[in-house]
Amino acid sequence: MTVVYIDLLFLLNLTANYLLLLAAGRMAGAALARWRIGLGAALGALYAALIFLPGLGWLALWPCKLAAGVGMALAAYGGERRLLRVTVLFFGASAALAGAVLGLELLGSVSLTLEHGVFYSKLDLRLLLVVFAACYFVLSLFFRRIGQPGGRTLARLEIELDGGARTLTALVDTGHSLTDPGNNRPVVVADAWALAGLLPEWADPADPIASVERCHAAGGRQARLIPYRAVGVECGMLLALRARGVAVDGRPLGRLLVALSPTALDDGGGYQALIGGI
Questions:
Q1: Which residues contact 141 (CB under 8 A, 6 or more apart)?
Q2: CB contact at 8 A, 195 and 265
Q3: pLDDT digits (tens, 9 = 90+) for 199-218
Q4: CA 276, CA 186: separation in Å to the nearest integer?
Q5: What pTM was estimated for this model as a whole?
Q6: φ and ψ at 174, to 5 degrees?
Q7: Is 190 a residue whose pLDDT tops 90?
Q8: What residues have CB less than 8 Å from 6, skipping those under 6 apart?
Q9: Is the confidence at residue 97, as pLDDT, over 70?
Q10: d(C-alpha 244, C-alpha 229), whole Å
Q11: Which of 126, 149, 157, 203 fits 199 for a cystine, CB–CB 3.0-4.6 Å?
């Protein structure tokens, strides 16, 4: 007879669910709200614990599992434009993690799951967390581009900064993958010259580090450094400003970061900014 400690079962499934929801959001390019991801993970962990309470075994039926998974995705990403993509990727990542755990069970002599496929083990908790983190890394690396739309087109980009607003022509490029480290939202890259007259006095796109230092010295906090890699540039930095608002073809996207390119993005002048598949 297996003795199940509900607190350990809840913690293990909370961790696994959080990493799966986080991986699905990153794979889909969705905006990340960590507290909502935590809420979705907690709902899934609570569901896993309830299965083993007396009289609630029916929760292990496949319709209930499907409903629980959809509920977790809704809690974490409800209202997100890419909700369907996130949900599909969440189920795919869950299946991949289950396969990885099954493989570990077959290779080893210990079990990492109970009946119904619920994560549970008497192994060192730290070891299990390392297993989950490794699976998360592999999933993110392998599926990073799954579900992202293809194609390249031009769009009308409206940017409002503290110094005013301007409309630019942007190239929609799904190969453009710069994101805000804080919330995983996309970063707009714009020619610095195209925003001339709107930038603060301390902003020098050719010297991003000094610009951030001057911004902080002046009491501002809107400047950021965005790392990037490009052909011939192994690890560069772009100066980025938090916009008051960004809209693409009239669709508002909120307060995105706008990274300033010190050189022209298009030699022909056909576009002055880059945006991802947003």
A1: none
A2: no
A3: 999 999 999 999 999 998 98
A4: 7
A5: 0.53
A6: -70, -10
A7: yes
A8: 49, 52
A9: yes
A10: 27
A11: 203
Alpha carbon separation from 158 to 71, 122, 139 (Å, rounded): 35, 55, 35
Measured at the CA of 213, the angle between CA 211 and CA 219, to 5 degrees, comes to: 105
Q: Which two structure tokens, joined as six digits, stand for 233?
A: 């540039």
Burial call 66-77: b when 16+ CB within 10 Å, e when fewer: eebbeebbbbbb
Residue of 251, 246, 205 lying closest to 228 (CA atoms) = 205
The arrangement of strands across the sheet holding 223-230 comes to 223-230, 233-242, 257-261, 188-191, 273-275, 164-173, 152-161, 245-248, 251-254
Residue 123 in contact with residue 112, Cβ under 8 Å?
yes
Distances from the Cα of 28 to the Cα of 1, 17, 154, angstroms:
42, 16, 22
For residue 173, pLDDT beyond 90: no
Please list the residues that pair with 198 across neighbouring strands: none
**Residue 173: Cβ-neighbour burial (10 angstroms; 0-12, 13-18, 19+):** middle
**What digits encode the pLDDT tens for the residues 27-59?**
776 666 789 999 999 999 898 888 878 888 788
The single residue listed with the structure tokens 């993110």 is 140
